[in-house]
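A.,

Following up on our hallway conversation. Structure tokens first:
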């Protein structure tokens, strides 16, 4: 029975499964590292012990998330050699150096300062410890930069030549490879998504503890900070997503047309199809609910601008539209839901009810996983929309896999599923246990002796540093 399965589909399923697990952790750790940096900066600036307590609270969670991200990333890299050896052989001269740069710059930077950040808070001066927190946060951003440069090159390849062996090799400047046409848009969109993922996770935890105790100072502070982030970053993300979509329409039109469900060309303006059942076989969206001309208005900023259809593209280059049609709508719907929560929190803040409205807190708890779901939906839209290519327009997925039999890939896929759900399921359960504990006001601050020795005025005691509004 296993022999009848398609080894390419199995290899794709295995990579999709492992990368989906992996993507959850960097999406959290990128935002969480920056959040910790801000918390420590606010504590050093204001002397408010609430920030120090929240730093310690989230530092434990960051350590676990970072560790699981590293482990899941190592597993992924091996698949390039096991399941996708042809792709590795052909694209290795481009992809290999970029991945090496990520290790040499970002990973070494993170590894060099992570120990100080995690274990040095009681052992080094506050200035040095804050510098370590900044370097770890910077390292996560640099790591995202290199990885997204790799992915963007696969989507919009530039700066290469194909040698006699059929390999993609650099041609001219590496800057053309690194800063390929989709890279700036993808980097901004993904980093903002990581910040929103963290904001809603932090906000959900804060809201959970506010439902239990509305006077908890740590819960109030983290919820307030998260809602400010949701309010200001979500509109920027929507604008960034629009720009990214226009760039994708220019370089990968089949992906956008599949996202929109536009099988047929629209010479007088395309509608926006809200819902329906896309069918590649029938080249139409069944039971569609649409708004006339809105699709052209969004994609061309002109309601009567003509748009092509998937039928203008060879059928063997169509991505599986039903998958990305719905993954795109899940991502967009969650984005606007985040905006709604941000605006609701602003209204509550103006009414001085931010910490009192239980319904807002319940919704925030429900929205806690929204960022994780949105980034996975966005990844599915991006990667499935690139099909049937690994290097867009140049190297097909069917020509990129290793010469493996279906049973070998199927057995390893099952093994991955079992091990991942046990190992990472345990890790996620432990994270939820950490988050279920409220931030306590009596968590100790870093000792003040090293700071006096360094000539830094120590922050006042926790009770003395709480502002009046936080004591009520």
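Then the amino acids I'd put at each of the 472 positions:
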């Amino acid at each position: 029975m296993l022999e009848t399965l398609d080894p390419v589909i199995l290899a794709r399923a295995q990579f999709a499964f492992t990368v989906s697990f992996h993507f959850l952790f960097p999406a959290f750790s990128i935002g969480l590292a920056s959040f910790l940096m801000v918390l420590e900066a606010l504590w050093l600036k204001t002397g408010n012990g609430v920030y120090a307590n929240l730093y310690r609270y989230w530092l434990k969670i960051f350590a676990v998330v970072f560790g699981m991200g590293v482990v899941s990333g190592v597993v992924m890299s091996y698949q390039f050699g096991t399941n996708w050896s042809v792709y590795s052989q052909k694209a290795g001269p481009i992809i290999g150096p970029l991945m090496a740069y990520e290790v040499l710059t970002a990973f070494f930077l993170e590894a060099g300062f992570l120990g100080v950040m995690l274990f040095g808070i009681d052992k080094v001066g506050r200035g040095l410890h804050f510098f370590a927190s900044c370097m770890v946060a910077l390292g996560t951003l640099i790591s995202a930069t290199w990885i997204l440069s790799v992915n963007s090159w696969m989507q919009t390849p530039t700066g290469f030549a194909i040698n006699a062996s059929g390999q993609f090799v650099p041609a001219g400047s590496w800057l053309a490879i690194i800063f390929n046409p989709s890279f700036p848009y993808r980097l901004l969109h993904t980093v903002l998504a990581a910040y929103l993922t963290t904001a809603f996770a932090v906000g959900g935890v804060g809201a959970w503890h506010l439902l239990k105790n509305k006077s908890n100072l740590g819960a109030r502070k983290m919820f307030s900070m998260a809602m400010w982030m949701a309010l200001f970053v979500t509109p920027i993300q929507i604008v960034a997503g629009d720009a990214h979509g226009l760039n994708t329409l220019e370089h990968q039109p089949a992906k956008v047309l599949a996202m929109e469900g536009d099988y047929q060309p629209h010479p007088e303006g395309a509608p926006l199809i809200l819902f329906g059942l896309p069918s590649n076989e029938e080249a139409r969206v069944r039971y569609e609910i649409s708004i006339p001309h809105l699709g052209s208005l969004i994609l061309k900023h002109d309601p009567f601008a003509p748009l092509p259809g998937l039928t203008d593209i060879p059928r063997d280059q169509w991505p599986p539209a039903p998958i990305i049609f719905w993954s795109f709508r899940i991502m967009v719907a969650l984005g606007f839901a985040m905006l709604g929560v941000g605006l609701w929190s602003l209204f509550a803040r103006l009414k001085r009810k931010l910490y009192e409205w239980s319904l807002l807190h319940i919704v925030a708890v429900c929205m806690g996983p929204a960022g994780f779901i949105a980034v996975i939906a966005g990844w599915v839209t991006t990667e499935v929309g690139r099909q049937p290519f690994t290097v867009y327009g140049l190297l097909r997925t069917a020509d990129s896999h290793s010469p493996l039999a279906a049973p070998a890939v199927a057995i390893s896929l099952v093994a991955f599923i079992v091990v991942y759900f046990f190992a990472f399921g345990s890790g996620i359960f432990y994270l939820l246990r950490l988050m279920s504990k409220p931030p306590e006001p009596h968590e100790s601050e870093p000792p003040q002796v090293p700071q006096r020795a360094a000539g830094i005025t120590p922050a006042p005691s926790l009770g003395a540093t709480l502002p009046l509004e936080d004591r009520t």
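The chain has one domain: 7-471. Curious whether your intuition agrees with the design.

B.
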